[in-house]
Design goal:
The protein has helices at about 15-25, 50-60, 95, 110-120, 185-195, 195-205; strands at about 5-10, 30-35, 70-80, 130-140, 145-155, 175. With about 210 residues, the chain is α/β, with parallel strands linked by helices. The protein has one domain: Alpha-Beta Complex (Maf protein), CATH 3.90.950. β4 (about 130-140) and β5 form a beta hairpin. α1 (about 15-25) packs across α6. The longest helix has 13 residues, at about 50-60.
Length: about 210
């Protein structure tokens, strides 16, 4: 018997995010990047929550794929000692803080964000360096949100980077129950712990894929 495969378009060009979603999708779901995304002006992400921003993006980008299901995420790192920062501003944390590295002025955005985070946590003792990765996903068709999913993974923040895998804050984040950072874990283990993978699984449980 043939099994119908549902295609979902993801509003991201981030290879790491696409990999996480594809790994969590399963056999009945095909994950594709939204075509032409690089030439589409991005919407303002001005909500105070991950879910709010995910909704904005899913509704907006669904206009560019009529009749199709488009999913969009908003995700980031919350640190308790920083009152939830970087939070929804995780990708723009260093810019928001006006952070400049005197030692390495030509850092990548991820490197700047990481250095800004570690500078902000300089005086935080080891037992208080706790936080979580959080992801919210919204699915929309023709500018109407049809499902929401969320996922999180608790952990602690290192003082120095470890590992070369993953992206974002992964070299500084050790998931609860693990001894290696996200960037040190192999791909299979990282996918098991992925907050994006968990969010997609939650989203799919609320999404009717029979139509």
């Amino acid at each position: 018997m043939n099994v119908r495969v549902q295609r979902l378009f993801v509003a991201t060009t981030n290879a790491g995010k696409l990999r996480d979603f594809a790994a969590a999708a399963g056999a009945r779901v095909k994950i594709d990047p939204l075509a032409g995304l690089g030439s589409i002006a991005a919407p303002d992400e001005d909500e105070a929550t991950f879910e709010g921003n995910a909704r904005i993006k899913a509704i907006y980008y669904s206009k560019f794929a009529p009749g199709e299901i488009v999913i969009a995420d908003d995700s980031g790192l919350e640190v308790d000692a920083l009152h939830g920062a970087p939070g929804v501003r995780s990708a723009r944390y260093a810019d928001d803080c006006g952070f400049v590295s005197d030692a390495s002025p030509s850092l990548s955005p991820d490197e700047r964000n990481n250095q800004c985070l570690i500078a902000a946590m300089r005086d935080v003792p080891p037992d208080e360096r706790v936080g979580r990765y959080r992801c919210a996903l919204a699915a929309a068709r023709d500018e109407v949100v049809i499902a929401i999913g969320s996922g999180a993974v608790e952990g602690r923040i290192l003082e120095t980077a470890r590992g070369n895998g993953g992206f974002g804050y992964d070299p500084y984040f050790v998931p609860a129950g693990e001894v290696e950072s996200m960037a040190e874990l192999d791909m299979q283990e990282r996918m098991k712990l992925s907050h994006r993978g968990r969010a997609l699984s939650d989203l799919l449980s609320h999404l009717d894929l029979t139509g």
